[in-house]
Amino acid sequence: MDSEDRMRKQREAGERESARMWRAWRTVHEMVQDRGYELSEEEVKISFEEFKRQYTLADGSVNNSDIGTIWVEFLNDTSVGIKQMRTFAQHCSQNNFATGILVTSVNITPAALKIIPAVAAETRIECFMDADLLVNITHHELVPKHVMLSKAEKAALLARYRLKDTQLPRIQLNDPVAKYYGLRRDGVYGVDEGLRELKGIEGVMVEDLHYEYPETVPKWG
């Protein structure tokens, strides 16, 4: 194989990696926007060519992105362990980021994941594989938009149907939709008309044990 062939193959490999990262990048921006952060449409709907011009390096890696009080970092390391997680957690904590999103191309070691609850009081760390962000799951017609209810709205919901927190339908914290929206344990979330028609559900409460829909579920009046 001559040098021209090697260079061509390297360019093709870099193009594939850039395309993969662009798709994950767009999903992350859509995810952050759906959580209520203000982003311009130019940031969210960035074209592939503009993405390559602004954000990719020669090896196809992506620069870090700082969005308000949330820190998003793409990590291209071939292994992600305690060292990388500690560095990420320290950066989020020292710079007062309420949430840090770490996107990796490989699984994070179990030992490194133990750092997440250890720093939970200072910053919330969420981890995603880039392969899980190549497609935005919330764009599917059967996935409803989730909106967190305020304390007053939650109280009104429970009072209206004479319910306790434990009687609301539940969703696992590791559910892909829960991860996308950054849903928190004990939060109550309203869902849009599409899911109400399918399930007759007004709100779901997040907890980390199970996912269930009671046989009798209150409908919107």
Automatic annotation (TrEMBL):
Gene Ontology CC annotation, any one: RNA polymerase II, core complex
Residues of the RNA polymerase subunit H/Rpb5 C-terminal domain: 135-188
UniProt entry tagged with the keyword Nucleus: yes
Transmembrane segments: none
Subcellular location: Nucleus
Gene Ontology BP term (one): transcription by RNA polymerase II
Chief place where the protein resides: nucleus
Entry keyword set: Nucleus, Transcription
Pfam families per the UniProt record, alphabetical: RNA_pol_Rpb5_C (PF01191), RNA_pol_Rpb5_N (PF03871)
Domain of life according to the entry: Eukaryota
All copies of domain RNA polymerase Rpb5 N-terminal, residue ranges: 15-91
GO molecular function, one term: DNA-directed RNA polymerase activity
Family, per entry: Belongs to the archaeal Rpo5/eukaryotic RPB5 RNA polymerase subunit family.
Name of the protein in its database record: DNA-directed RNA polymerases I, II, and III subunit RPABC1
Species, as recorded: Diplocarpon coronariae
